[in-house]
Amino acid sequence: MNSKYEDVFYRDNLATKLLGYLVLFAMFVSFLLIAWYAPVERTMGLVQKIFYYHVPSAWNAFLAFGVVFVASILYLTSKDRKWDILAYSSVEIGVIFSLIVLITGPIWARPIWGVWWSWEPRLTTTLILFLIYVAYLLLRYFSGESNQTANFSAILGIIGFLVVPLVYTSINWWSPEAQVHPQRVGLGPHMLVAFFVSLFTFTLLYVYLLIRRVQMAYAKTAVDDLREQQSE
Amino acid sequence: MTVPLRAQHIRKSFNNRPVLRDISLEVRPGTFAVIAGGNGAGKTTLLRILAKLVKPDDGTILIGEKDLWAETDEVRRHLGFLSHNIYLYDELNALENLRFTARLFGLKNYQSRITLVLQKLRLYHRQFDPIKTYSRGMQQRMALARAILHNPDLLLLDEPFSGLDESGVEIFTAFIQEFKAQNKSAIIVSHNLRTGYDLADVLYILDDGRIGFQERKQDITYEEYHTEYRRILEAER
Amino acid sequence: MRQIFAILWKDLQLEMKTKESFLSMLTFGLLILVLFNFAFDLTPEMKRLITPGLLWITFLFSGILGLNRSFSLEKENMAIHGLLLAPVDRGLVFFGKFGSNLIILLVTELLTLPFFLLFLNMPLFEHFWWVLGIIVLGTIGFVSLGTLFSAMATSTKLREVMLPLLLFPVSTPILLAGVACLRQILSGEPFTTYRQWFSLLVVFDIIFVVVPSLIFEYAIEE
Predict the structure, then answer these.
(1) Does any CB of chain C come closer than 8 Å to the CB of residue B230?
(2) For chain B, which chains pass the contact test of at least 3 CB pairs under 8 Å?
(3) HSE-CB for A35 with a 13 A CA cutoff
(4) Tens digit of pLDDT for each residue in B124-142?
(5) Mean pLDDT of chain B
(6) What is the pLDDT of residue A117?
(7) Which secondary-structure segment (H or E) carries A116?
(8) ipTM exceeding 0.95, yes/no
(9) Sign of CA dihedral C129, C133, C139, C144
(10) Staple partner for C173: which of A170, A187, B226, C211, CB 3.0–4.6 Å?
(11) What is the CATH number of domain A13-179+187-220?
């Protein structure tokens, strides 16, 4: 069993540590850009800067789910547990980023538009995504580790991903009044730079967290394998 | 078919707890293998793997010359499985339950086969009563009816005598003898050593996920078998 | 395929003998209707506005009951293994279960409709066939995903609770499209006003009948 998980990628190594430092550095630079380089937005004021965290978090939440989708398909076709590990690691990280979106959304919305929540398509779709993530985790948590649980999780990963575009479309058509969310915001050049740096940084953060989480999962598998061998 | 079943190096763990460590066995046509063992020794798991209900972590199983897991589900036609649960619907009667099984297996002209099986197992007179009204023994016979309806070549029976009264055991044994006379085989898990010994051609005892004992009945007396069984169970404690 | 009908018929036989699913769904649906009427002081205009939404909410919530029951029946005596032991393609098992769940829920919905007429003055007769069509379309997608998820849910510790958790988020498009279509139909608006919602329902149904049938085997095998 051990030989399956001995890929260099899956063990703590120098490359991962370097990535960690890179992420740290990038976040620091990104913060500087957001705080000072990007100007304060005219109409919305300082609170608009949440946008630099809000949107990349949303990007991460959906990217994570895309990874879940692919990993789920690969798991069902190959039956190799490593894809299952990748899938649920991505879920755990994705749920956090979607939660960040759901928290930063209202924080941004309240001072600007006067309401904590609006049933805006992208925000609401993120809410549904969050609920699917939570359902996935509950499903796993209340089932224990087994092939069956991995199968069920993969099914949810596949169905959930396929549903999301339809959810977005249906909410988007639902009521035009809910369109208080800025759609295409005009961003000045400095803001664009800050935004894309932030986006890049967040993506890097997602990748780093994913690698770390997967490594943790493998470490646990290795321990469990040792236990199993011991009892033979 | 030359060799009904050949299982090699079956391994299975549940949640990192090994249940079957390295099981290999072979059952020839017209012979019965009886497997005994303490609780948790892995007997039921082994049977479920052989019935293609649970996938083993390792090992191959050949039914006839076909690989159980590589083949399509058609290979299930050769197998009949009887377990602790009866795998039937309480609210339906015997006839409806067996008709359903027959249709699932795609049997043609199944009515005569159903009648025959019900008569053999002395359930014919109650065929219109829902299964939930049956006694435990009758339900067990009903489960056997379900298992044999499609005329399998290999029977996998997990404690078939549990819940049966004397006449039930008689009916069962008569059926099993007939089955053997057709040159078919069976793997039987039994807690009742005496009955198991009588039925068997080959005796196995599972010991903590491995085969701790294997002997042809003609080479061993019942007393020796019994002693061996006690010894293994004591060692497990 | 004959095996699909065998499974479908067996489920319907079981339901006809006990009527458990059907009665509990119908009763629950009525309860929701009645409670809503008490909880909200509804003017005729308000009734007109909420009818589409309330109809779908009622159907979805009571539908969950039937879906749960379908697989809990298979868990008694582990009858599902009787199915698994047979040389039946697991996709066909899905269609058999899907078919019986669909029929039972549709019958329940049909019998609940008169009560919408009674309590909410829903203009049922003027647009009956269109209303029926939308209900059927929405129910198909819901039951299809529900069949897949309830097979999974009955094998988990949380059982009955797990199914709504899994099913409701992914049923959002059905709810929105179903309500939007009904709203237009009951107001006498022409098809063009809700054509896009209708297409959404159709697309949803196609995807979520095909995909579950392909992956159903992973939901019921061990």
Answers:
(1) no
(2) A, C
(3) 6
(4) 999 999 999 999 999 999 9
(5) 89
(6) 82
(7) none
(8) no
(9) positive
(10) A170
(11) 1.20.120
